Structure to design on (323 residues):
């Protein structure tokens, strides 16, 4: 029986991913801060697929939910890391509480030889006021957004980086929304959201200067339109039938699974020349072209080029040449 060309392409893609992830990070230790769901979960799972030991943190456990009131737990994420081939260790941490973050890093130091990868993916915002100026916004909601989206990253870096720089070649990934180039010229829906996401990118820039003398690298990294658990729920679809959502939101056709940004982080973590990216703002679609990884369907969605050239340009949804 003749094999469908699409199936052949998928098989080639799977073989390439297997070569990339197989044991490439065995013996390495990663901390994915904010790994309960979404990009953080995807990153943790893919680091596990490469053989890493991954500490996954968040506020929601089997016995307690955060203010987001979502069902995903850090234990589930740790189990996915194990299933992928790594070792997942779930630790409940509120990254706004310095003592909890300090205790986390002390534990990692006591249990492991060091820390090689730090991923700051903390967000946890439950309420957003879209398209509101700073004076129209609720100050409590706005400042909470900054606390969750900015302070958490700074607190975690403060405690974790001293352990990371003990071993040359460490990598810090600041996960944000939008490349620095895009965010520099586009208003991101509200004063507080705009400020939070731009701040995270600037953190990577500042950390790059501070880490360089220690042989470590810092980057900011953005996914495209992410098919997170929350987004799939909002559209009433699953990962298996997500294409159905394009009848309501046509540009969702460019969306990507959390595994895609996970594979981007894994590629960076395995790159012996990762320092070339120090201080840079990167996207999953951009790195897919360079490192050759794909999304789980074998495609390489280049969302930020698509957003500029198709979505923002007011053109009909068409992902030809962008996946």
């Amino acid at each position: 029986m003749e094999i469908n060309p699409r199936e052949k392409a998928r098989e080639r893609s799977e073989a390439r991913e297997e070569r990339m992830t197989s044991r490439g990070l065995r013996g390495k230790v990663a901390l994915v801060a904010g790994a309960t769901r979404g990009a953080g979960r995807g990153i943790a799972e893919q680091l596990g697929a490469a053989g890493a030991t991954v500490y996954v943190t968040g506020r929601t456990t089997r016995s307690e939910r955060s203010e987001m009131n979502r069902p995903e737990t850090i234990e589930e994420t740790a189990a996915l890391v194990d299933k992928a081939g790594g070792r997942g260790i779930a630790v409940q941490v509120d990254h706004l509480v310095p003592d909890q973050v300090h205790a986390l890093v002390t534990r990692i130091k006591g249990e492991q030889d060091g820390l090689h990868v730090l991923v700051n993916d903390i967000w946890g915002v439950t309420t957003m006021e879209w398209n509101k100026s700073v004076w129209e916004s609720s100050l409590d909601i706005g400042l909470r957004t900054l606390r969750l989206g900015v302070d958490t990253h700074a607190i975690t870096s403060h405690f974790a980086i001293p352990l990371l720089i003990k071993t040359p070649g460490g990598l810090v990934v600041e996960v944000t929304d939008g490349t620095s180039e895009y965010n520099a010229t586009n208003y991101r829906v509200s004063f507080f959201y705009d400020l939070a996401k731009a701040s995270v990118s600037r953190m990577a820039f500042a950390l790059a200067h501070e880490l360089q003398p220690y042989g470590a690298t810092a980057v900011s990294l953005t996914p495209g339109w992410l098919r997170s658990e929350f987004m799939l729920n909002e559209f009433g679809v699953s990962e298996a039938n997500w294409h159905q959502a394009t009848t309501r939101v046509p540009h969702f056709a460019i969306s990507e699974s959390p595994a895609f940004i996970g594979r981007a982080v894994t590629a960076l973590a395995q790159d012996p020349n990762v320092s070339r990216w120090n201080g840079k703002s990167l996207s999953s679609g951009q790195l897919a072209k360079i490192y050759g990884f794909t999304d789980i369907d074998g495609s390489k969605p280049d969302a930020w080029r698509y957003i500029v050239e198709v979505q923002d340009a007011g053109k009909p949804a068409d992902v030809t040449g962008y996946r």
Observations:
- Residues 1 and 7 are 13 Å apart (CA to CA).
